[in-house]
């Protein structure tokens, strides 16, 4: 049986790509075992109209999904984050590898 293609809405995609960036930042994430899952240890906080996510500066409006329970529930249901996201945020190996199509949006590093 062919695996069903995962579809994300815009807010879910933005949230997932931010989690992927955090997962690659050693100050924000650590590996969980040998299966490729990553524990997010620090979520960024907005100051003014932006926040720092890894080495990038992100507009706060692009990160609203980080505090949206519906987004987390959808990402969990689709297997991109673990179900216990309210206790700890674990990005699954599938979530880390998933292409949102937004990866190029965050290729410019912060200058501050």
UniProtKB/TrEMBL annotation:
It comes from the Bacteria. This is Uncharacterized protein.
């Amino acid at each position: 049986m062919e695996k069903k293609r995962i579809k994300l809405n815009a807010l879910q995609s933005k949230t997932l790509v931010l989690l992927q960036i955090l997962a690659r930042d050693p100050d924000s994430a650590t590996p969980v075992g040998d299966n490729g899952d990553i524990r997010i240890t620090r979520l960024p906080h907005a100051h003014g109209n932006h926040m720092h996510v890894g080495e990038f500066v992100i507009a706060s409006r692009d990160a609203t999904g980080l505090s949206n329970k519906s987004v987390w529930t959808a990402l969990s249901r689709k297997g991109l984050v673990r179900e216990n996201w309210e206790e700890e945020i674990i990005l699954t190996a599938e979530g880390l590898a998933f292409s949102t199509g937004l990866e190029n949006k965050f290729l410019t590093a912060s200058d501050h």
